[in-house]
Design goal:
The complex is a heterodimer of chains A (264) and B (373). Chain A has one domain: Orthogonal Bundle (MetI-like fold). Helix content of chain A is 75%, strand content 0%. Chain B has 373 residues and is of the alpha+beta class. In chain B, strands 6-7-8-3-9-10 form a 6-stranded mixed β-sheet, with helices on both faces. The chains are: A mainly alpha (264), B alpha+beta (373). Chains A and B meet through helix 7 and helix 8 of A and helix 3 of B. Chain A: InterPro entries: Bact_Polyamine_Transport, MetI-like, MetI-like_sf. Chain A: It is found in: Cell membrane.
């Protein structure tokens, strides 16, 4: 095409390649070394080995951390998505004074530095005698994840013709029926995407979990524990698995968020 | 008022608007709407955007509540009654079909909301799909349909509960001209077949006049006139209606005195004419009078023909099918329009700037009652 500048195109491509390299090189490295028999990551590589995977498979501590992560992740996904849907629907449905303030407040948590968030959560949860329990991690992650769910569902609802809701009322559907048969079906792809993304966020979140989890550590907190004790290629193995599970969730969410009208 | 006279024609009303006012904050959307809609009538509410026609319809549907006054539906006062407790289905300008449901599911929706069982839902929906000739699309997705097909789905969906009244909010505005005319015929026939009341909101005069039994003309929240298309066209009530219809020339004159036994001599800027007494029964000398002469009742002559009338020059011409609308300007600056056949115009051999004399039969003058109270 005549209106494209070759040099700019080339620079942009280079830029993308560098971005991808910086993001994925460490992850790829970690993945490669997780399958390497050597104790320390160095070149040339040793033999191919699944030893480190076997070790973490047999480590009860890893399993415990993983179980905590899954329980927390699933619960948080549901709680955050329900809260997020409520916030998004409130925004779609109602106009009231102070609405922008309400929205700012609802979307605030991700902007708070995690250390401050973690400290505040710890201070609060220990007062209500919940600190150091799995529930405390669920509460903290629920607060942190619901804005993501709200943002995703809000975006979907903003694409909805407001007449759809009125049309449902007009055809005999009361407000609950309309919510069930019109609003939720319309927002369904976004609701599932929100479930996956909030689960992924909870999966990866370290700092706040570190403050409030006590003995019920989630996997990222466990990994830090391993790192402090000894440098082991097991970390690479765990990291690779964690990366795979997070990416799966995010990709699923992205697939759902493609406009459903485009799929046809 | 004329609206009251019209009311008595429909002794059995399905809808009564009793001095209904709707305000949004300081803005008055509908001001003292007072009219009835007859059972089985096709009523069009017409006006330009922001005139309050859609608000009127939404109040009837129960989507807005009147600020003052009462609305009666089938004898029952429905102020405050939720839209889901009324049976006033609406066909939306956006159609508002559910994109996540199939055609069949869309049509079944209102029955599902009313707790009708699955099998009965299917049968009743199929009946309407058949009636609207869209059976073959039953399992399609909404966005696989054309504009006309979507229109039919919207109609089937609204009619599936067999309501006594159907509300339509500019349903044809998104269609192209050809399809629009076809859908007008579909709607007209449907309304006659079903015998139910249609309330049809539109900004298009051609839609309103071609389908409706009666037309309500609104502007800035006020009802300007209610009547059959013929009545409104022949006898617009006031200046607004005459201008809105756009096919008449409006003159402001003063009664000079009687002209013969059954006429008044009236002077207006640029000329004099005779108004029939039937148009102005209680006229008197010096009275101000506003009257119209429709564009097709005006005659054109060349200045050298000696015909008395207003002198004007041609400003332009607009082609309207078999006729043309000639736009003229008088010496006093008034704009006039005259509709004539192409044959007649070619004899005059007009071009921009040509001088002509405009005249008309005194019987073709109509006094605007709303301007002469």
């Amino acid at each position: 095409m005549g209106n494209e500048n070759r040099i700019i195109n080339l620079l942009l491509k280079l830029h993308i390649a560098l971005c991808l390299l910086f993001i994925f090189a460490p992850i790829a490295g970690s993945f490669v070394f997780s399958l390497n028999s050597d104790r320390f990551p160095s070149l040339p590589l040793g033999e191919f080995s699944t030893e480190w995977y076997r070790l973490i498979w047999e480590d009860p501590l890893v399993w415990q951390g993983f179980a905590n992560t899954v329980v927390v992740g699933l619960t948080v996904a549901v709680i955050a998505t329900v809260l997020g849907f409520g916030g998004a629907y409130t925004d779609f449905r109602y106009n009231f004074t102070g609405k922008s303030f309400y929205l700012a407040l609802a979307l605030l948590p991700p902007t708070i530095p995690v250390v401050i968030m973690g400290l505040a959560m710890l201070a609060f949860l220990s007062r209500v005698n919940l600190s150091g329990t799995t529930i405390s991690v669920i509460i903290a992650h629920g607060v942190m994840c619901s804005p993501f769910a709200m943002a995703i569902i809000r975006l979907r609802l903003s694409q909805m013709d407001p007449d759809l809701e009125a049309a449902s009322w007009n055809m005999g559907g009361n407000q609950w029926q309309t919510l069930r048969y019109v609003i939720i079906p319309f927002a369904k792809p976004a609701i599932f995407a929100a479930l996956f993304i909030t689960m992924a966020v909870s999966f990866d979140e370290f700092a706040v979990a570190w403050f409030v989890s006590g003995l019920n550590e989630t996997l990222p907190v466990k990994i830090l524990g391993f790192l402090q004790g000894q440098v082991s290629p097991r970390i690479n193995a765990i990291g690779s698995l964690a990366f795979l599970s997070s990416m799966t969730l995010i990709i699923l969410a992205q697939l759902l968020l493609r406009s459903p009208e485009d799929k046809k | 008022m004329e609206a009251n006279a019209q009311m008595e024609q429909h002794s059995e009303a399905i809808v009564t608007f009793d001095n209904v006012v709707k305000r949004f904050g300081d803005f008055t959307a509908v001001e003292k709407a007072h009219f009835e809609i007859g059972r089985g009538e096709f009523l069009a509410i017409m006006g330009s955007s922001g005139c309050g026609k859609t608000t009127t319809l939404r109040m009837l549907a129960g989507l807005e509540d009147p600020t003052e006054g009462a609305i009666y539906l089938d004898g029952e006062k429905v102020n405050g009654k939720a839209t889901w407790d009324r049976d006033t289905p609406m066909v939306w300008q956006s159609l508002a079909l559910f994109p996540f449901l199939t055609v069949q599911e869309n049509v079944e929706f209102a029955l599902k909301m009313r707790g009708v069982g699955k099998e009965e839902r299917r049968q009743r929906a199929e009946k309407w799909l058949e009636k609207m000739q869209i059976t073959e699309f039953a399992n399609r997705n909404i966005n696989q349909l054309s504009g006309g097909q979507k229109q039919r789905v919207a109609l089937a969906r609204a009619l599936v509960t067999e309501p006594k009244i159907l509300l339509l909010d500019e349903p044809l505005s998104a269609l192209d001209a050809h399809l629009k005319v076809r859908m007008q015929a579909v709607l007209s026939n449907l309304q006659k077949d079903l015998g139910i009341t249609f309330v049809y909101v539109t900004h298009s005069m051609s839609e309103a006049f071609s389908m409706a039994d009666r037309v309500v003309i609104m502007s800035r929240g006020q009802i300007e006139q209610i009547g059959t298309p013929e009545e409104i066209y022949r006898e617009p009530y006031n200046r607004f209606v005459a201008e809105f219809l756009g096919s008449a020339n409006i003159f402001d004159g003063v009664v000079q005195g009687p002209a013969g036994a059954d006429g008044w001599q009236v002077a207006y800027e640029g000329g004099e004419t005779i108004l029939p007494k039937s148009e102005l029964p209680d006229g008197r000398q010096g009275q101000k009078v506003t009257f119209i002469v429709s564009a097709e009742n005006m005659q054109l002559s060349l200045p050298d023909s000696g015909q008395p009338g207003i002198e004007a020059s041609v400003a332009g011409e607009e082609f309207i099918g078999g006729t043309a609308m000639v736009f003229l300007e008088t010496a006093g600056g008034q704009e006039l329009k005259v509709q004539k056949s192409h044959d007649e115009l070619s004899l005059l051999n007009l071009h921009a700037g040509s001088k002509v004399v405009v005249h008309w039969e005194s019987g073709s003058c109509h006094v605007l009652p709303g301007e002469n109270k």
